[in-house]
Amino acid sequence: MTTEPFTFRRATRNDLEAIIALLADDDLGQSRECVSTPVDQAYLSAFAAIQSDSNQLLAILEDDTGVAGCLQISFIPGLSRLGMWRGQIESVRIARRCRGDGLGRTMIEWAIEQCRLKQCGLVQLTSDKARKDALRFYASLGFTASHEGLKLAL
Predict the structure, then answer these.
(1) What share of the chain is helix, strand, coil (3-state, %, to 5)?
(2) Measured between alpha carbons, how far is 93 from 115 in angstroms, rounded to an integer?
(3) What is the mean pLDDT of residues 69-89?
């Protein structure tokens, strides 16, 4: 478990390059992301949309050397389950230099607490089936594979 001081905060435009680098820093991410200077306009547009939506939280975990992790939470209103709100956690990444230090667990526990604060009755996430370690990790936090997730690329 890490003993380094760290903080959570809402991401700013200045964090965008570091976030994109985290998203690209694995086998799956390398094929999906575009690390470039300047930042691709698609990321800038997405960031602006996230920042302008009060039901979106793009957060970073920061330590004394910079961005150590990131995630996005979408707070989703719904009619089912008596109008229950859900927290959808996406784009969870820990910097390679910090992996194995317990920051992933700390970050997800923090995200769950943010969902509680928004009065969500459920927290959900998806993880690529190829990410076997991630699936075991989420199960260790109490997440259950209760549903099948389906996607359609457009």
Answers:
(1) 40, 25, 35
(2) 18
(3) 97
| Radius of gyration, CA atoms only, the chain | 16
Residues 81-110 have a mean pLDDT of: 94
- Contact predicate 85/118, CB 8 Å: yes
Q: What are phi and psi of 152, to 5 degrees?
A: -130, 115
**For the whole model, what pTM was predicted?**
0.90
Using DSSP bridges, classify how beta strands 6-10 and 66-76 pair: parallel, antiparallel or unpaired. unpaired
| Residue 44's pLDDT band (cuts 50, 70, 90) | very high
**Which spans in the chain are helix H?**
16-24, 27-32, 41-52, 80-83, 103-117, 132-140
Name residues whose C-beta falls within 8 Å of residue 22's C-beta, 6 or more positions apart in sequence: 67, 69, 70, 93, 94, 95
